[in-house]
Design brief:
Blueprint: E1 6-20, E2 24-38, E3 46-51, E4 54-57, H1 58-63, H2 70-73, H3 79-82, E5 89-92, E6 105-112, H4 116-119, E7 121-124, E8 131-136, E9 139-142, H5 143-151, H6 170-181
Parallel strand pairs: 3-7
Antiparallel strand pairs: 1-2, 1-6, 2-3, 4-5, 6-7, 6-8, 8-9
């Protein structure tokens, strides 16, 4: 909280998937602020949040590698599949991250992204550790915890049975953030 430039409780309104050279995938999410916690924003403002995750077609992924022949880049894709490579998708995300969804609400701990100067976008300070998703109404869980649970096989409780999360209310989060965001003397 102390190192965050902006902390907001917000809702994802739009997700734009991007791919740059050499298969680097990320999203630019339009987030509507439901409650500003730190920074100069007001309720109802919208910000861009960049995340290192994405969902792109295999064709766009392959096209992002300059000068590489399609056959060399993807030997696992057959020639017949290649004709429909724009209908096969690659999902990229951190090991304990979860893919963002439109309508998802959460608390974001943000800093300026590397493209802030061109589009004023922010990024999570420590990726999935710097976001708490509203798991149920007014129950927030760190994204990394949810992502770890998603990785568990169903037999080990990956279907939520028997899993326990560290759950916080919005009020608890704001109080904790307020205490942590104050500079140490």
């Amino acid at each position: 909280a102390e190192h965050s430039e902006v902390i907001v409780y917000g809702e994802v309104e739009q997700i734009h998937y991007m791919v740059e050279e050499n298969g680097y995938c990320y999203t630019k999410e339009e987030v509507r602020i439901l409650k500003p916690i730190k920074g100069g924003y007001k309720e109802g403002d919208r910000i861009l949040v960049s995340k290192e995750q994405g969902l792109i077609s295999v064709q766009k992924y392959l096209d992002s590698f300059p000068g590489a022949a399609e056959e060399e880049m993807s030997p696992a894709i057959s020639a017949s599949d290649f004709n429909r490579a724009d209908h096969i998708y690659v999902e990229k995300r951190g090991r304990n991250d979860i893919m963002s969804k439109k309508g998802q609400k959460g608390i974001y701990f943000l800093g300026k992204s590397s493209s802030y100067d061109t589009d004023q976008s922010y990024c999570r300070l420590t990726e999935e550790e710097a976001e708490y998703i509203e798991y149920r109404e007014n129950e927030f869980v760190q994204t990394a915890e949810l992502g770890m649970a998603e990785q568990l096989p169903a037999a080990a409780g990956g279907d939520e049975e028997g899993l326990t999360f560290s759950v916080y209310s919005l009020e608890e989060m704001i109080e904790t953030i307020g205490n942590a965001a104050e500079p140490m003397t």
